[in-house]
């Protein structure tokens, strides 16, 4: 048999029986094929969480790059420290200071995006079956990592003010009763992906106190924290607790994801293990990327540039909120104060995953809510991202989405009571997302 595209023979995977058990957690999503179609230019994609890198002045990046090559070429092209370039680690302290964090550069570990930091922390702490607590919903890329280490992800109720402390207490008590080992709480307190919500200032000390009382480490993932639209930047959980929190940061949303540079700020004891794990995984993060970012931070008005990004994303959020008000007034959604995402509640009878093929036919794409749950939840939700499309395209996309939802409702009304279009069971497997779904 030949592949229709490349003429390559298609063979069954000869090594299927050899994979480690945990590799079964790495399965391709059936929505992956749809997203391949959704990347066509005529489709308005509200699915991927891509930053609008065109808002970054190219000349500033080019100038940083040229300085690095002129002045430090041989080091930039060489292997470097497993912990990261010292000058950049020092500059990262300035970035985190904007969120009230004071720390030592000794405890900063530079990683290949914060995604790698997520992987390393999970590798260090999780044995198969260990529990990770996470918001409901949670970041799809983290769920994928947790699954690959065979963790048991338990979602905790999350509302418009973020993680609900009472629900966290109850979940811990219940798990303790079941003699489960809870290893850490994974949380995105600011401008959550995908929920768009921010943990309120009142809840922050409470969440920290609950974790302290129960000896639970916090993994604070904060790639969007500086992208606040109107309010001051929220202080990080790490700014309130030095020993109980591993903080993850990234240059992906405030500069560019193409550099693949993020970092972890860890309590001193953990930091050592993290560096060893990073060295075992990749020897060292890219010297070249780190040095270009370091030079950019030294030369450019990076704080001003982040303000530019805030303005761009605020305008896009407003365009999306306006279009939702106009075309889908009967649905419910949150109003994000920063970041990239709006989380939409659909009527109970609509299934966002089942509806996606119709959406792609109508030339609009979104991410179904099920991608953000480890337990099959989220069928009546979808995530919309406003970071990448222009305001004009956002309006076109939401208008199309309204047509999709209306069409789906009409179809269900037509077959109501016949049982022909009943929803599949909740236990249906939720599979890994396509690559642009961060
Ligand atoms: C919540 C969250 N954490 C981590 C990441 C990974 O970011 P990075 O590009 O730094 O690996 C993303 C990317 O979208 C994200 O949304």
From TrEMBL:
Keywords: Aminotransferase, Pyridoxal phosphate, Transferase. One of its GO terms (molecular function) is pyridoxal phosphate binding. The keyword Transferase applies. Residues 58-401 form the Aminotransferase class I/classII large domain. Pfam families: Aminotran_1_2. Signal peptide: none annotated. Its cofactor is pyridoxal 5'-phosphate. SUPFAM superfamilies: PLP-dependent transferases (SSF53383). InterPro entries: Aminotransferase_I/II_large (IPR004839), Class-I_PLP-dep_aminotransf (IPR050859), PyrdxlP-dep_Trfase (IPR015424), PyrdxlP-dep_Trfase_major (IPR015421), PyrdxlP-dep_Trfase_small (IPR015422). One of its GO terms (biological process) is alpha-amino acid metabolic process. Homodimer. Belongs to the class-I pyridoxal-phosphate-dependent aminotransferase family. This is Unannotated protein. It comes from freshwater metagenome.
């Amino acid at each position: 048999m030949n592949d229709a595209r490349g003429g390559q023979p298609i063979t069954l995977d000869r090594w299927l029986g050899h994979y480690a058990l945990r590799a079964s957690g790495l399965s391709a999503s059936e929505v992956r094929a749809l997203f391949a179609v959704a990347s066509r230019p005529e489709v308005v994609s509200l699915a991927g969480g891509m930053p609008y890198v065109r808002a970054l002045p190219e000349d500033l990046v080019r100038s940083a790059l040229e300085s690095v090559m002129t002045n430090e070429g041989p080091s930039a092209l060489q292997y470097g420290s497993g912990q990261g370039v010292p000058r950049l680690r020092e500059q990262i302290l300035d970035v985190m200071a904007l969120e009230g964090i004071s720390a030592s550069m000794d405890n900063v570990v530079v990683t290949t995006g914060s995604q790698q930091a997520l992987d390393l922390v999970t590798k260090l702490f999780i044995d198969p079956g260990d529990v990770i607590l996470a918001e409901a919903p949670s970041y799809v890329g983290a769920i994928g990592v947790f699954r690959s280490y065979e963790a048991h992800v338990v979602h905790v109720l999350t509302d418009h003010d973020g993680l609900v402390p009472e629900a966290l207490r109850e979940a811990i008590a219940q798990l303790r009763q079941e003699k489960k080992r809870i290893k850490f709480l994974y949380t995105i307190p600011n401008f959550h992906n995908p929920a768009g919500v921010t943990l309120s200032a009142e809840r922050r000390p409470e969440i920290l106190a609950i974790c302290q009382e129960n000896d639970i480490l916090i993994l604070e993932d904060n790639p969007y924290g500086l992208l606040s639209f109107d309010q001051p930047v929220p202080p990080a959980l790490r700014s309130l607790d030095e020993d109980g929190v591993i903080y993850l940061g990234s240059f992906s949303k405030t500069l560019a994801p193409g550099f693949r540079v993020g970092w972890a700020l860890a309590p001193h004891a953990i930091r050592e293990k993290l560096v060893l794990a990073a060295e075992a995984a990749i020897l060292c993060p890219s010297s070249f990327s780190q040095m270009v970012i370091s030079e950019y931070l030294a030369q450019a008005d990076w704080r001003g540039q982040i303000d530019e990004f805030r303005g761009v994303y605020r305008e896009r959020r407003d365009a999306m909120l306006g279009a939702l008000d106009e075309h889908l007034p009967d649905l419910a959604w949150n109003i994000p104060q920063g970041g990239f995402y709006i989380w939409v509640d659909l009527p109970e009878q609509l299934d966002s995953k089942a509806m996606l093929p119709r959406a792609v036919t109508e030339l609009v794409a979104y991410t179904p809510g099920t991608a953000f749950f480890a337990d099959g939840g989220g069928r009546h939700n979808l995530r919309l991202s406003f970071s990448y499309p222009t305001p004009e395209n956002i309006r076109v996309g939401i208008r199309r989405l309204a047509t999709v939802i209306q069409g789906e409702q009409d179809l269900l009304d037509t077959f109501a009571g016949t049982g022909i279009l009943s929803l599949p069971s909740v236990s249906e497997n939720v599979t890994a997302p396509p690559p642009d779904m961060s």
